[in-house]
Write the structure tokens for this entry.
Amino acid sequence: MIIEKPQAFVTPEFLIRQATQAWEIGGAASLRHRTFVTEQGIFPDHDRDAVDKVALPLVAISTMASEADEVVGTVRIHETDPNVWWGSRLAVAQGYRRVGRLGAELIRLAVGTAHARGAKLFLAYVQAQNVALFEKLHWQSLGAQDLHGHPHMKMRADLAAYPPIVDPARGWMALTRKRAA
Ligand SMILES: CC(C)(COP(=O)(O)OP(=O)(O)OC[C@H]1O[C@@H](n2cnc3c(N)ncnc32)[C@H](O)[C@@H]1OP(=O)(O)O)[C@@H](O)C(=O)NCCC(=O)NCCS
């Protein structure tokens, strides 16, 4: 008798939006800790910094019976100089990577939101292993740089590829690849 290991359930629908409620903001903080402290070891104790005081947190939320369930992706954006915006701390939970284009959808929300708020330049320090992902999404490399002892690439988004998103708190529903096909 062949007993097949059941596949883990992955919700077919995700909400992509600005985090406004306490559980969403807390879920994003916890996912960042799991990713950048526990998994990648980029920060020894915690990954919080001064940017968190001014940044807009964005999230991808899994659903259960079409209701919001758990934060499974996050990124934050902030303006450093007039019309110059940065994205940082992009993370998708391990079980949700390459299933719903969540990373790509969060980048779309991040750049589109900044675009609607007047961004003329949108930048990020991208971990070296993710440069190809950003290139596919219309980002251009500006130069390699070590950050927190890890190789990064400074990259710039092509704003023409990211239509403005005026109301990020409203967001949208994204589907898994299987469901969207
Ligand atoms: C990087 C990360 C956010 C990507 O999220 P994801 O949800 O898995 O990515 P997506 O599914 O949206 O990927 C979009 C496309 O890029 C591809 N892709 C994903 N990661 C890639 C990578 N590292 N290199 C090249 N292509 C990649 C996907 O296969 C997909 O391609 P397709 O549209 O042709 O099918 C996720 O892997 C992660 O959280 N990693 C750990 C933390 C981290 O590295 N943060 C980023 C700091 S810059």
About this structure: The pocket of coenzyme A is lined by residues 35, 90-92, 97-98, 101-104, 126-127, 129-130, 132-133, 136 (CB under 6 Å). The chain has a mean pLDDT of 94.
